[in-house]
Write a structure and sequence with these properties.
The chain is of the alpha+beta class. The protein contains 4 helices and 9 strands, in the order ααββββααβββββ. A hairpin with a 2-residue loop joins strand 5 and strand 6.
């Protein structure tokens, strides 16, 4: 009898109520775990989006610096190597991609402008004669105002901005690049219209420094990327002797 009773006790398991309680607890723990995992996945996606957006901005600003670093004045086009009309900045610069035989490819004409809420960059093919450069220089101006289908083949949309401003540093002061007067003035392009200031008295030489100010647009896909960015480019051989 003792052996039978012991065997019966060993074969006894959980009751139905105990199993239901255990299953319920497991379901609650699984739900909590899934919510936590979902939160981690969402945080990872948000962080990755921010990283990607920051990388795009950094790449574009690096391109901006590269265009200015390789700026090359061309007589009969722009003795300063660039021109700003309040809407578009045009630059003649050395091409960074050599020909197949390793020789110099010549010059590019690049242009930067704001259109339809986006910042855009335009780049011509590499050219080695003044006539082609002059035509590309005019095309860049036309592209900023009324781009043709052919001109659009050479443009690149960058990212959304509300406005952008440019200031030149000359004679130890930041000035409006469209006027010889007005220290600490800026050429605002928030509406995309050409500014009304005249270029009378503006130096034909390259500025000692260029300040870029852009306001990023807080769009739903760019909630983390908004605010104002200021970037100064200084001419490599510039020496400020101001005391």
């Amino acid at each position: 009898m003792r052996k039978v009773s012991s065997k019966v006790r060993q074969q006894q398991g959980f009751t139905l109520i105990e199993l239901l309680i255990a299953i319920t607890l497991m379901a609650v723990m699984a739900g909590l775990g899934w919510r936590g995992l979902d939160g981690l996945m969402r945080s990872r996606d948000i962080n990755q989006t921010r990283i990607d957006q920051t990388a795009v901005v950094q790449t574009v600003l690096a391109q901006w610096r590269s265009d200015l670093e390789r700026m090359t004045p061309v007589s009969s086009i722009s003795d300063a190597g660039l021109a700003w009309d309040g809407q578009t900045l045009r630059i003649t610069r050395r091409a960074s991609t050599p020909l197949d035989d390793g020789s110099d490819a010549g010059l590019w004409v690049v242009a930067w402008t704001r259109r339809d809420g986006l910042w855009w960059r335009w780049q011509s093919p590499a050219m080695r004669d003044k006539r082609s450069l002059q035509e590309a220089w005019q095309r860049a101006e036309r592209w900023s105002k009324n781009a043709s289908e052919e001109d659009k083949n050479w443009e690149t949309p960058l990212f959304a901005i509300d406005e952008w401003q440019i200031r030149f540093f000359r004679s130890n002061a930041w000035t409006n690049p469209l006027s010889s007067a007005g220290v600490n003035a800026s050429a605002n392009n928030s509406s995309g219209a050409v500014a009304s200031q005249t270029a009378t008295g503006v130096s034909s030489t390259a500025p000692d420094a260029i300040r870029l100010e852009i306001s990023l647009s807080p769009t739903p896909s760019r909630q983390a990327q908004h605010g104002r960015i200021t970037l100064d480019w200084i001419r490599p051989n510039f020496s400020n002797n101001k005391t």
